[in-house]
What we know:
alpha/beta, seven-stranded parallel beta sheet, 18% strand, twelve-stranded mixed beta sheet
Amino acid sequence: MRYAVSNKxxxxxDKACIAGGVPxxxxxxxxxxxxxxxxxxxxxxxxxxxxxxxGGDGFALACLMSDAGCDVTVFYISDNISEDARYYKDExxxxxxxxxxxxxxxxxxxxxxxxCIFGTGFSGVPKDEYADVIKRINGSRARxxxxxxxxxxxxxxxxxxxxxxxxxxxxxxxxxSGLLLGDGKDLCGEIVTVDIGIAIIGEKYAVIDDGFIGxxxxxxxxxxxxxxxxxxxxxxxxxxxPGAPKLAEAGRAALRxxxxxxxxxxxxxxxxAYAGSVVESTLFxxxxxxxxxxxxxxSIDRVMKGMTAVVIGPGxxxxxxxxxxxxxxxxxxxxxxxxxxxxxxxxxxxEIVRLKDKKARLLLTPHPxxxxxxxxxxxxxxxxxxxxxxxxxAQAVGCVVLLKGATTVVSDGEKTALVVNGTPALxxxxxxxxxxxxxCGFAARGISLFYAACAGAYLCAEAxxxxxxxxxxxxxxxxxVCKAAKSIVDTYDA
Length: 494
């Protein structure tokens, strides 16, 4: 399985490698060789170097390209460069290489630009000459290759205001999390990783791919029945947000993910409205007040009997007190997997820590704004470092957290995974209901919440991509995702 690392882990691993006896200039030479092996050697290449070690990679690359007879020109932005960068700039001079100029001489009229301006240590917004150079790179006709990370992109959370748009990014030793998060997905182009012999010391984030989810759909044994694969339950709906088809799709998604039985628990007064949309699931009416679910211990005990996984929250409405009572009772009294989404999360805010003392195994599925309410952090702070935010929340509550986004982040506070196959086609109302239903279906089968969350996010994204082929990324509906999931599941069943 592929993995990604934080800037901090990569920096510490780099330092440990140097302390272990590998000179930093040797690591720079290895990085340059890795880039050299992954760029076009024909045509005219410009290498644009910053003042740090990322610029040093560019000077070292120029040595290799010059030795190979390539048409290469080097441009530097600052005379004040790092010691290791100075070493390779001097090496160019020793070779008699004289095609090296200040960047104000650059016309950007070439076939390929190698971006070596900023490395993963950069944060903030490029200014002045640096900002101008990046804008001119993006406006050129050249194919752009970024070394380690597109300059201007934050390597932790993938935030960028002004950054290079690369056609290819050559990640040194390991993919940095910022390449896969936020704006990174739109700026990195194709990502290639080159091994330069640095042992990674610290946490690796699993990058979820097809190899992860395939085994979850092994051929069913003939000797089975609907009870073999667990029972899922979805509690939600209200007169405020009836969304009957959405809840129905959530239930259908749970069944698509493999659950044997699914039940929808909805307000008693709205059963008629839901009946027309619910075909595969069972309807269970719960006491309500003004069209919103009301806490009723007897009803909860009856509907929860035998359930292996439950989702609480979709469309429950704004009665936070009642919503919180329902959630708290289930979480603290039922031995099952419990997934809180939407209005169930909004019922608690930063008081979500009340659920730390629980009987159920718990998964929270916020989007960034909901995560802001749960943590007390700003949305901007969460997006700047989503992995840390998710891990801290998981640790505080003692649960698994799935943070929705272009890349979905899943963590149980110890291990973390990035589900990177997201698509803008999922940016549509109802997609979250299908996601939680899918995760619930996996959990009902006995798959742990961490892996169920990863698998659900991956499967929904793949299904959305199938639906895109028919409707385009603007026209995909949540119901299309649920239908398309069948074709994805069929590929694993074949």
